[in-house]
Specification:
Layout: H1 6-12, H2 14-32, H3 39-63, E1 68-70, E2 75-77, H4 79-98, H5 108-125, H6 131-149, H7 156-187, H8 192-199, H9 206-223, H10 231-238, H11 241-248, H12 250-266, H13 283-302, H14 308-323, H15 325-329, H16 332-363, H17 374-377, H18 379-393, H19 399-413, H20 422-447, H21 462-480, H22 483-486
Length: 498
């Protein structure tokens, strides 16, 4: 830990300050300069200002890398945390780009500013080892997402989804706060490392067990893990497409990384074991059960969906189950696998939502039938969707395949002598095979089904098409050459150590 003055502290949080300034500039430009223009023009101008702000923050972190641990872990800055923040900003840029053609709201400045506020919350979230700032950052992120989910006032589903999201979110925040308050009472500290040192013991304290369960419930909601997933399908279906993309991508990345941090560092010493034949009480068996339930329910329920948005929602629940395997094994290798998987999954999901946004705008819906014959009407868009869905299914040589392979092998390495986690990996592989079925249902509609008789070519907006193609190219590159990302993650577990 180090003491810093206000000027030094400002330099440490300058990327977040830049994003906040960009959000205020978006509000000012929309209110004072482009208010009388059409919605698409306002979205374009606002998106340019937002992207400039995010890019400036990225450039600052690249040219002025810093390393610090201030205020007892309240703010932890390292090359690894900066890398994660850069990834979050890149994901936010892609979300903004796919929203440029939107016409669902006249409040353009407010909408884009909320995306930037949410991104700021994520950036603080992944840069802290203090439960107080973690909770504050979570609430900044959550409040922004609640409003973003309800932004389409002309759609009753959007209001319903946001209400469910808000009610479940409020309940989960109460669980999280209660669990973290118990942790503070047991340890007398808000620093995760000090909490672990104070709560270690030969047996699991009953109050600590309650705190662990409360914390898992709170964070389980944030990442939409079973059985805390009920809000996700409705929000993915009812929220504006770009809002759903943000919730499904960068918000999930930040939530998973902070969940890993809290469990692995804050509850070190209370892990237990879920290895076959050697069960030990602790938080790992709880995570293993949540992971298995998410994998099974997410994949099986996705088979029955006729809405592509809801299909992506249940698919996302299953992918959360896969990513929780990293917590079950919690090794240095598994954290690197989690980071690779989460970032490539988020990128792929934004691309899939980008395609859905174009189809909804041009055809009017997101049902499977709306994708019939899309390959003849929008061949470039269809090929990108092919890449996204096959990557989500884990087909080589795409990023999703290497992500799953890396994650599964790192999970097995968590119990190298007994292969005690083999049961969980076998379940994940089997359910991955099931997932291929419903992804192929979408591709069958796109490439095999005939388009409607009166249907003509779909003209994809140039910005959306460029963004979607760029995402697809990145997914292919990261699958063929995973070291492009993994090479930036040496000793990735040091992200949360100092």
């Amino acid at each position: 830990m180090m003491a810093v003055g206000y000027s030094a502290l400002l330099q440490l949080v300058l990327p977040e300050v830049i994003v906040i300034i960009a959000s205020l500039c978006v509000l000012a430009v929309d209110l004072l300069i482009v208010r009388g223009m059409e919605t698409r023009t306002r979205f374009t101008v606002g998106a340019v200002v937002s992207c400039i702000g995010c890019t400036t923050a990225i450039v600052w972190m690249l040219i002025a890398p810093q390393q610090a641990n201030v205020f007892d872990g309240t703010l932890v800055i390292s090359p690894q945390t900066q890398l994660v923040k850069i990834a979050l900003l890149v994901l936010a840029i892609f979300v903004i780009l796919i929203s440029i053609e939107s016409t669902f709201t006249p409040h353009v400045g407010e909408y884009l500013a909320l995306i930037l506020f949410a991104t700021t919350g994520m950036m603080f979230l992944v840069s802290s080892q203090n439960i107080l700032l973690i909770f504050i950052s979570l609430e900044l992120l959550s409040l922004s997402l609640y409003v973003l989910a309800a932004f389409d006032k002309r759609n009753a589903q959007s209001a319903e989804a946001a209400l469910k999201y808000f009610l479940f979110g409020g309940g989960s925040a109460a669980f999280t706060l209660f669990g973290l308050s118990l942790v503070y009472g047991l340890s007398g500290s808000t620093n995760l490392t000090r909490i672990a040192e104070a709560t270690k013991g030969s047996s699991l304290d009953p109050l600590l067990a309650v705190a662990i369960v409360m914390t898992v419930i709170g964070f389980g909601f944030k990442i939409a893990a079973v059985p805390f997933h009920f809000w996700a399908p409705d929000v993915y279906e009812g929220a504006p497409t770009s809002s759903a993309a943000l919730i499904a991508s960068s918000a999930k990345v930040a939530g998973l990384l902070i969940f890993y941090q809290v469990m692995v560092i804050g509850f070190a010493g209370a892990e237990g074991s879920s290895a076959w034949g050697s069960y030990v009480p602790g938080w790992i068996p709880v995570i293993a059960v949540v992971s298995a339930l998410s994998i099974v329910l997410g994949n099986l329920v996705a088979i029955t969906q006729i809405s592509v948005r809801r299909l992506i929602a249940y698919s996302a629940i299953a992918h959360v189950g896969y990513m929780l395997l990293a917590l079950v094994s919690h090794t240095e290798q598994s954290f690197g696998a989690l980071l690779y998987y989460a970032l490539t999954y988020a990128l792929t999901t934004i691309g899939a939502f980008g395609v859905v946004a174009v189809v909804e705008a041009k055809i009017g819906g997101d049902k499977l039938s709306d994708f019939s014959g899309l390959s003849t009407r929008a061949p470039v868009l269809s090929f990108c969707m092919l890449i996204f869905l096959l990557s989500l299914a884990g087909i080589p040589p795409l990023a999703g395949f290497f992500g799953k392979f890396y994650l599964f092998t790192s999970t097995l390495a968590g119990e190298p002598n007994t292969f005690g986690l083999l049961w969980l990996v076998i379940l994940a592989i089997a359910m991955s095979a099931v997932s291929l079925y419903y992804y192929l249902q979408v591709l069958k509609r796109i490439y095999i089904a005939d388009p409607p008789a009166e249907a003509g070519p779909i003209r994809t907006p140039i910005v959306s098409q460029v963004a979607i193609c760029l995402i697809a190219l990145t997914v292919v590159l990261l699958g063929c050459a995973p070291n492009l990302l993994l090479g930036l993650l040496p000793h990735a577990i040091q992200l949360y150590r100092f």
